[in-house]
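pinging the channel bc i need a second pair of eyes. not urgent but kinda urgent?? the chain im working w is below, pasted from the shared doc
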Amino acid sequence: MVSYLLEHKNSAEANPKCQYDVVSSESLRIDSAGSVNLLVAALTYLLYPDDAIARAQLAYEYARLHDPEKPMAAVFATANPAVFESSLPGAFTERKNILAETFTF
């Protein structure tokens, strides 16, 4: 139903006097928020920097928010430890040791 209303909102048949904005239970899920997924991936990477899956997840979530047109092959190539950190913001990589110490239990 929600997808129908959103599609109709952008169609020629939509009534300009009506509002078609809706809030679905799916849109309220925190695990569907890209910013939350990026934060979780960054924290996981800080805890497990040698884990290839943690690097790949962080590369994916960062690219999904900041470079959505980037081909997936290029995204996961950056999960390679040799080039991984060059694809992330400098402020994050410069402070990763301090951040990792903060979140280490």
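so The two ends are 45 Å apart (CA to CA). and The longest helix spans residues 52-66. — does that match what u expected or am i reading it wrong
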